Amino acid sequence: MINKIAFITGITGMVGSHLADYLLENTDWKVYGLVRWNDKMDNIEHLMERINNRDRIELVYGDINDLSSLLICFSNTKPDYVFHLAAQSYPKTSFDSPLETLETNILGTAKVLHAIKHIGLNPVVHVCASSEVFGRVSKEFLPIHEDVTFHPASPYAISKVGTDLVGRFYAEAYGMTVMTTRMFTHTGPRRGDVFAESTFAKQIAMIEAGIIPPVIKVGNLDSLRTWSDVRDAVKAYYLLVTKDPKAGEYYNIGGSYTCSVRDMLDYLISLSTKKNIKIEIDPDRLRPIDADLQVPDTSKFKKHTGWEPQISFEKTMKDLLDYWRDQISQDKKFLMR
User: Fold this and answer.
1) pLDDT for residue 303
2) Does 99 fall in a domain?
3) In which order are the strands placed within the sheet that holds 250-253?
4) Which of the four pLDDT bands, split at 50, 70 and 90, describes residue 102?
5) Residue 337: inside a domain, yes or no?
6) What does the alpha-carbon distance between residue 109 and residue 273 come to, in Å, rounded to a whole number?
7) Domain shared by 150 and 218, yes or no
8) Domain identity same for 66 and 178
9) Are 78 and 128 in the same domain?
10) How many CB atoms sit inside 10 A of residue 144's CB?
């Protein structure tokens, strides 16, 4: 007998797919994943046999921008836990598509929570905001604790401020068990190639395969980041909803290894089988403004849940590079980004 039901928006993303893996391996829950009809399924391809057999995991079709579809999905599934991960998640794209970003991330979150409220369900809800809400933080406020003033540095970051506040509002106004998280930089296998460490790893894999010259195109390398592994992140999300959940609470979550984007790139290059790889600034990869100091204070979350990151920076980066080596070896065609 299945004890609990989990509902994941954004299940086809890096985090959503790893969260599905974690729940299937470590719980006896039934997992429903929200997908749009045209979503790429690459990240959950390894789960297709189970999905087709309805072996504790099923896909439901809808869109967080379509309230009517959400009402149907939640009515049919009646989840005990909702992980709201779906978003327009790329900061640089948000400068070109600010309205789509704001609508999807703020109004989409409001529609998810409104649908749950309207149906009369009371699941434990995780609303995923972002460390980008803190934006440009002065060194005097490092490490960043939960109540550091928001100073968003992109339309994406602004949208995640809205996401954060909408989640907290529904908890306070309607008594819903909603918690928000500000996850700092997290990465690993299946990371989208629009993000710095993943595009670097992809380019290295393409260089090793002789597809492109030994030149890595980069943006801003001076930003400071604290790195965590996506597989640690999803365990944190599980603990968030199961370890004495507190309605309306908000938490910073992140890793323990801090270095610049430049140092991260140097480490990836050190793992390559190719030597003498050059680095070239690509103006198209630069943001108009950047969140340059992303170092979290995660003591509040750790104290509440006992969570600690387990996977080292070195393993995360090796696994990311190996993921791209595997993708490139399948003779797929990729955009040069």
Assistant:
1) 98
2) yes
3) 57-61, 30-35, 5-9, 81-84, 124-128, 177-183, 250-253
4) very high
5) no
6) 44
7) no
8) yes
9) yes
10) 22
Rounded to two decimals, the pTM is: 0.97
Nearest-angstrom CA–CA distance, 216 and 231: 27
- Identify whether residues 215 and 117 lie together within a single domain: no
Q: What angle do CA 209, 215, 217 make, to 5 degrees?
A: 115
Tally of domains in the chain = 2
Instruction: Find the angle CA(337)-CA(280)-CA(208) to the nearest 5 degrees.
Output: 65
Domain range enclosing 280: 196-224+257-288+311-329
Concatenate the DSSP letters of all residues of 38-101 into one string.
T---GGGGGGHHHHHTTSSEEEEE--TT-HHHHHHHHHHH--SEEEE--S---HHHHHHSHHHH
Is 97's pLDDT higher than 90?
yes
Same domain, 154 and 275: no
CB 4 within 8 A of CB 77: no
Query: Does 206 lie in the same domain as 126?
Result: no
Q: In terms of domains, do 280 and 161 share one?
A: no
| Alpha carbon distances (Å) from 164 to 168, 179, 187, 311, 312 | 6, 9, 21, 27, 29
**Nearest Cα to 314, choosing from 194, 227, 192, 223?**
227
pLDDT bucket at 2, cuts 50 / 70 / 90? low
160 located within any domain? yes
Task: Let me know how long the chain is.
Answer: 337
Give the CATH number, domain containing residue 323.
3.90.25.10
- State how beta strands 257-260 and 224-229 pair: antiparallel
CA angle 119, 84, 304 (to 5 degrees): 105
Over residues 142-168, the pLDDT tens digits come to: 999 999 999 999 999 999 999 999 999
**Helix/strand/coil percentages in the chain, nearest 5:** 45, 20, 35
| 297: helix, strand or coil | coil
Q: Are 40 and 14 in contact (CB under 8 A)?
A: no
Q: Say yes or no: 162 and 245 in one domain.
A: yes
